[in-house]
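## retry 2 of 3
previous attempt timed out at serialization; input unchanged, resubmitting
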Amino acid sequence: MDVIDTIILGSGPSGFAAAFTLLKAGKKPLVITRNSFNNVCSEVTIESVEPVVDTLINDICGKTIAATASLGIFGGIYSDGQYTPTKFSGNSLRHGIHLDRGVFNAQLLSVMTNAGINIIHDTKARNIFNDNNQVTIVLDDGRRLTASYLIDCTGRKQVAGRLLQLPRQYYSPRLTVWSGIDRINIQIPTYAASFISEENGWTWLAPLENGLTGWTRVALTNHAALTPPFSIMENHKTGVRSADTRWRLFRPLYSGKILLAGDAAGVLDPAAGQGILNALWTGKIAAEAAVKMIDEPTKEQTIVQQYDTWHFKRFEMLAEQLRSYYKVRRIIFAVFLELFIT
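## retry succeeded, writing output
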């Protein structure tokens, strides 16, 4: 069996960044994904991103992608009666984008395919074996693949962390996020997103070009009604999607020759505004670590510890920023967040 340089689990933003970083370094990545061009766009979900996302994508692969998946743009955010414009590169103003996440992921997959990156579609890792010399994964169909290193970019599925039963550190009580798309029956600015503080959580409104509005809500799990904000919504258009968004991080962020990136490493709730950006950054840095280990295997332990330290400090910085944001807005679960300060 040929040994692959690095297996990447997942073809979302972190997997995309990792694959291109390895490819540009002259390595041989293999991407394993549950997605294909037939199923990646099967359901519309909205994610709002700042302008810097497309700049980072262009740095990674030489293309801009986010704009092609746009369902709307926003020039700033209304929160507690104040308007804050989006900024890019110092004080220059640029609009953010409300992405169709399925279309965005399909674009990432297409760009990787066109670049000649090897991809195995419509499958997932059923088991992972980690030893001192290599990583072996077993796919759904029984195939076994061996690589020098593995980067888990499976998002909130956290495949490697779950299969290897890695320890986790928690930074919040149990939180739930739920979202959908509706037509609203109140007047809101069409060129701005809105963050609405509530007693037990918050609501995010993202006006779209088709007259609909994407919405996201977060609350303590025992207060999560999993319903749209009916007080301002009518003509419900999509099913409600929900997920566990408790703040959590695997510690450490590596195991043997396996590195964790993006949400596969750690999760914050969407108010951090860092989902796609964090996935791109950590996928890129994890791949750079893999390149260094391939080229200098005697320094492997030092390199993975450096990656772990960098990622851990970044996560703690974002968690503290979000904790302070909630405290200022007097959202009730900010009190509980103080109990999880490490």
